[in-house]
C-alpha cells in the first residue's frame, strides 16, 4: 500500500510502507481504532515523549494516545483504542505519521511490535515484529531506529529496508538519540562497555566511541545537528559535554553531590543552556560555554555539510570552548582544586525550579528563556529563567492535562 506523508516542509513522495518482517520476525495482526466514551479517571498515563523540535509531546495512555501542543498549551487530538494502551508514541515532527508500541495489556499489539500509524488515513501502514521487547523507537525524516535491550536496528523510512545493526551493552532504558538537522545524520547509543557512548556519523561513515563515565550511562542527548553530546551516569552528579567528531570532553557541570537518577537532559537550540531533571525534584539550568564552528548549520546548504564536518573535527579545544562567563556558580575555594574534592571546582547550576520529588519529569526548552516540564502525574509547567541573574525560575503556566495515577516509564 502507498502513503502520502505530510510534514511541516510539504508533501513527501508516496512511500511504499507495507507490512515488514524484521530480522526477528513474528506474526502480524490488524489494528482497529474506535472512539469509546472513556473518562480521564479511568485512564492511566504510561509515557510521555517530545517530538523532534520539542514543540509538541505525545502521551501514551492505557486506552490509546494523545498529542499536546506546548506553546500555547492545548490538546491537539486523542485516539482511544479498544485493543489497549501504548507505552511508546513517537511523533515525526508535526506530521500525520506516528510510531506506536503497545503496552503489556494491549491485546492486539504487544511490546515486541512496532506500528507505523498514518493518522490521516487512520490505519497502520507498516509494521515490525521482534522476538524481544522494544525499548524505544526514534525517528527522523529519513530513518526509523528501533532499540532492543542489546541491539539497535536502523531502517530507511521510505521503503523500510534495514540499513544498520548495532550491538550494545544491556540497554533496558532504550537509550538512543538522533540528530534532526537535514545536513547531518548522527546516532548516539550505548557502546559495548560500561559508561561508553557510541556515535555513528552515518553521512561520513565514521564511528566514534566516547568513554563518558566510569559507571553506566543513565541519560544523554544530542544537539539538533549532532555535533555535541551531553551525558549523565547512574550516579547522577555530573553532566558532561563532548564533541562527537573527536570525542573531546568540552565541559562538565554538577547537578549535586548526592546520588540521583537523571530523568532527562535538554540542550537549548542555541546551545547556550542545558537543563536536567532528576528524582531530587529540581530542574537545573546550566550555562554552557561550548560552541562548534559553524554551529548554525541552517545558514549552509547541504553540499557544505561534509566539508564543514571535516573542518570541525580538529582536536583543539580553543575553537570549541568560549571564555567562562561566570554564569554557573563555582566554589570560592576553586584555587585549591588540587587539594580539595573535585566538586569544589565544579560548575553548579545557574537557575532552578522545584517540583514534587515523587514524580518523574522530562524537560525541554521553550521560547524566550523558558523551560517546558511535563510530569508522569499528568502535569505541565512552563517556567522562565533570568538569563543574566539566574536563581529560582518563575512559573508562568501550570496545567493538569491528565488527572490520574501514573506508572514509571
Any overview of this molecule?
This protein has 409 residues and is mainly β. The chain contains one helix and 33 strands. Strands 25-26-27-28-32 form a five-stranded mixed sheet, with no helix packed on it. It has a four-stranded antiparallel sheet with strand order 5-6-7-8, with no helix packed on it. A four-stranded antiparallel sheet has the order 9-10-11-12, with no helix packed on it.
Rg estimate, integer Å = 21 Å
CATH architecture type of the domain at 43-134: Beta Barrel
Question: Which residue ranges are poorly predicted, with pLDDT under 50 across at least 5 consecutive positions?
Answer: 1-22, 24-34, 292-326, 330-345
What is the tally of helical segments? Answer: 1
Residue-averaged pLDDT, rounded?
79
Shape: globular
* Alpha-beta classification: mainly beta
Strand content: 35-45%
Q: How many E-type strands?
A: 33
Helix content: under 10%
**CATH class assignment of the domain at 43-134:** Mainly Beta
Q: End-to-end distance, in Å?
A: 34 Å
Q: What is the CATH T-level topology of the domain at 43-134?
A: Thrombin, subunit H
| Biggest sheet character | 5 strands, mixed
Strand order of the largest sheet: 25-26-27-28-32
Sequence-ordered SSE layout with sheet pairings:
Layout: E1 2-3, E2 6-7, E3 10-11, E4 15-16, E5 45-50, E6 56-61, E7 64-69, E8 74-80, E9 86-91, E10 97-102, E11 113-118, E12 123-129, E13 136-140, E14 143-147, E15 151-156, E16 162-167, E17 177-178, E18 186-190, E19 196-201, E20 206-211, E21 217-222, E22 228-233, E23 238-243, E24 249-254, E25 262-267, E26 273-278, E27 282-287, H1 305-311, E28 351-354, E29 361-365, E30 370-375, E31 379-384, E32 391-392, E33 394-400
Parallel strand pairs: 28-32
Antiparallel strand pairs: 1-4, 2-3, 5-6, 6-7, 7-8, 9-10, 10-11, 11-12, 13-14, 14-15, 15-16, 17-18, 18-19, 19-20, 21-22, 22-23, 23-24, 25-26, 26-27, 27-28, 29-30, 30-31, 31-33
Amino acid at each position: 500500500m502507498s502513503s502520502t506523508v505530510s510534514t511541516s516542509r510539504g508533501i513527501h513522495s508516496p512511500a511504499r510502507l507495507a507490512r515488514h518482517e524484521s530480522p526477528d520476525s513474528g506474526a502480524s495482526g490488524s489494528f482497529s481504532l474506535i472512539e469509546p466514551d472513556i473518562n480521564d479517571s479511568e485512564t492511566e498515563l504510561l509515557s510521555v515523549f517530545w517530538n523532534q523540535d520539542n514543540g509538541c509531546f505525545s502521551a501514551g495512555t492505557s486506552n490509546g494516545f494523545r498529542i499536546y501542543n506546548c506553546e500555547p498549551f492545548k490538546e491537539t487530538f486523542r485516539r482511544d483504542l479498544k485493543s489497549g494502551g501504548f507505552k511508546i508514541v513517537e511523533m515525526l515532527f508535526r506530521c500525520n505519521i506516528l510510531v506506536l508500541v503497545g503496552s503489556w495489556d494491549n491485546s492486539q499489539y504487544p511490546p515486541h511490535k512496532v506500528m507505523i500509524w498514518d493518522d490521516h488515513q487512520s490505519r497502520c501502514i507498516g509494521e515490525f515484529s521482534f522476538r524481544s521487547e522494544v525499548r524505544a523507537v526514534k525517528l527522523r525524516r529519513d530513518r526509523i531506529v528501533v532499540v532492543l535491550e542489546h541491539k539497535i536496528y536502523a531502517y530507511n523510512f521510505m521503503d523500510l529496508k534495514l540499513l544498520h545493526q548495532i550491538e550494545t551493552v544491556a540497554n533496558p532504558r532504550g537509550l538512543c538519540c538522533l540528530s534532526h538537522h537535514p545536513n547531518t545524520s548522527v546516532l548516539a547509543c550505548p557502546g559495548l562497555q560500561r559508561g561508553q557512548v557510541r556515535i555513528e556519523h552515518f553521512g561520513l561513515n565514521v564511528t566514534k566511541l566516547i568513554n563518558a563515565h566510569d559507571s553506566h550511562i543513565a541519560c544523554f542527548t544530542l544537539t539538533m545537528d549532532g555535533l555535541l553530546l551531553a551525558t549523565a551516569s547512574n550516579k547522577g552528579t555530573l553532566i558532561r559535554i563532548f564533541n562527537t567528531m573527536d570525542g573531546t570532553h568540552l565541559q562538565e557541570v554538577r547537578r549535586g553531590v548526592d546520588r540521583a537518577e537523571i530523568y532527562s537532559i535538554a540542550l537549548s537550540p542555541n546551545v547556550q543552556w542545558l537543563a536536567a531533571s532528576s528524582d531530587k525534584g529540581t530542574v537545573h539550568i546550566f550555562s554552557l560555554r561550548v560552541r562548534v564552528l559553524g554551529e548554525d548549520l541552517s545558514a549552509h546548504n547541504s553540499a557544505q555539510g561534509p566539508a564543514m564536518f571535516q573542518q570541525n573535527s580538529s582536536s583543539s579545544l580553543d575553537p570549541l570552548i568560549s571564555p567562562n562567563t561566570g554564569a554557573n556558580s563555582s566554589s570560592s575555594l576553586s584555587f585549591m582544586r588540587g587539594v580539595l574534592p573535585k566538586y569544589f571546582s565544579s560548575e553548579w547550576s545557574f537557575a532552578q525550579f522545584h517540583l514534587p520529588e515523587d514524580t518523574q519529569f522530562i524537560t525541554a526548552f521553550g521560547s524566550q528563556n523558558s523551560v517546558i516540564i511535563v510530569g508522569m502525574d499528568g502535569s505541565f509547567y512552563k517556567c522562565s529563567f533570568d538569563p543574566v541573574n539566574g536563581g529560582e525560575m518563575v512559573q508562568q503556566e501550570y496545567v493538569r492535562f491528565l488527572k490520574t495515577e501514573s506508572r514509571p516509564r
